[in-house]
Protein: Dipicolinate synthase subunit A
Organism: Thermodesulfitimonas autotrophica
Amino acid sequence: MKGRLRGITVSVVGGDHRAVFVAEEFLKEGAQVRLAGHEVAVAGVQAAGTVEAALRGANAVVFPLPGVSDDGYVATPGKPLSLSEEDLAVLSVGTPVFTGFARKFLREVANRRGLKLVEIAERDDFAILNAIPSAEGAIQLAMEHLPVTIHGSAAFVLGFGRVGMTLARMLTALGARTTVVARDAAQRARAMEMGCRVADFGRLPVLAGEADVIFNTVPALVLTAKILKATRPDVLIIDLATRPGGTDFDAAQRLKRQAILAPSLPGRVAPKTAGRIFAQVVADLLVEEKGLALAVGP
């Protein structure tokens, strides 16, 4: 049901190109929307010249998925925005502040100012849907860099969380010979049920030499120099984990393995879809907080 945010002012501060579509989605929901850190003009959205102007009088604030840096900067397509405690002080106590990941600076200031900090990156309703553009973007990268088709290729997926599961399903549907490497026995059982070959990480040094492409989703060092040395010289590695990734990139360079760190793919390959997903989750939370009725579709 559109219009469920009528009477609410939402400020969208910084972010990549997803932010424009986040703002548009809030506008469709009936909110008054302010956008800071973007030069793109969006009909109906108020462009805020400063962070303070964006925040003053806002009923809710949305920072980008990567959050605010520890030194108080918010990434934008151009020059980063500087965010100070004085800027946040214009918000009323209890104002919800949404972000993907909250780092120390934002956590501490929100706590001191009595703001309601909400992290959505690990929420299932967001992460499961956001895994779709992540997986599609990873496969797009593989198609651009592999000398062979995905169909028939030996594809390894390290980790079987939300992105890993979606990626393995898509690769299998495209005809890849997909191997899922996961620590958890239940995850391996689920991957096997999906038609994938499975292994634990102890087997990776033995199996890695088979791979045409390795997709890593684990935010810890799993592709060590030892494992990289066991791969073929023409292997392609696409690391989807949050920086610094789960690959020893120095070792990959020494060994002349093609390794690509590719976090935040949704914002690069499908900003409109990714922005809509982000905005809809935030909108649902705002509706829930205000005690408004959610629409029930057919």
Observations:
- The chain has a mean pLDDT of 94.
- The longest strand covers residues 9-13.
- Residues 38 and 214 are 36 Å apart (CA to CA).
